[in-house]
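Self-study notes.
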Amino acid sequence: MNTGYNLLDAFERVVTLHPKRPAVRCGDSQWTFRALRERVLSAAASFGALGLGRGDRVVLLSANCHRMVEVYWACMAAGAVAVPLEARLSEAEMSAVIAEVAPALLVTDTPERVSLLRSLAGGTPAVCLLGGHPEAADYDTLAARPGASAWPAIAPDDAVAIFYTAAVEGR
């Protein structure tokens, strides 16, 4: 039975009930649910300004950090599909996933990984979570821009993520 309640609705409910509670901690820093919501909506709007649309795939490759939490939610808020890559995949395995999903955007943490993913994805636009790459948008700049004030509508059958297992080569 479809109730129409989705992950963004659940996130909004938590923000409404606990806006000042810590949502994410990374090192010595933390963000409240309200602050996380604002950064997610800003990132989603910025992703849209980069041309990301409903159903587009976003390849993610990064160490765990608060920005990755934001990016997952921002993909959903932009109507896009997050496709995280396991950092231990070989270049050939990453290339196979990238070829299969045909990403509209790449999000990664370091300038070196920006260069790697862009080479595997034929120059697809990229966002660098930690900045420092001349051909990639800086994530913190995107997440600080004004965003939407509300979540978009999500259909019950909209995909929000595609996860590949370690058996990529065996398909």
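Second protein, same conventions, sequence then structure:
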Amino acid sequence: MSALTPPMLPRVTNHLTGRKVLTILVAFFGTVATADAVLVVSATRTWSGLEVASPYKAGQLYNAELRRAREQDALGWHLAASAARLPITGAAVTATLADDAGTPLRGRTLHARFERPTDKRKDVAVDLVEVAAGTYAAGAEAITPGQWDLVVEVIGQDGVAFRRKHRIVLK
């Protein structure tokens, strides 16, 4: 009788060894750590931090802000502001100021700020000058395209007497 011999199986050389497991783990966690590092660096470079220096104190001053808003409404003033891109890298801001009867308010001191909603480091302030009765204008340099908050303030004897904030998009 002939003895049956089992067929020869091909030899498997692709064993999962400790070295391969270590390489897989190091590659996986290295990829995750690299992605995290890129995201953290990107976040810290593009976000300036807090909206206000002390949110706690800003909360305490909320009633004073409400009082100022009521005082501003009692003045009955109307302020309309607009901004337009200049040909190169700037913007022109124009504001008209009138009283409750529609009479232009002359001789006031107006300040404007272009505030970037996402990055306060890019804010630009300008002083407006009166160019016609109740119409004030100024130009600002280095205003990039995008969304901005245009804040126009009328300065009074005790500080800011009137403030308007407009969300604008400069193309």
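Instructor comment on the second fold: Residues 18-46 form the longest helix (29 residues).
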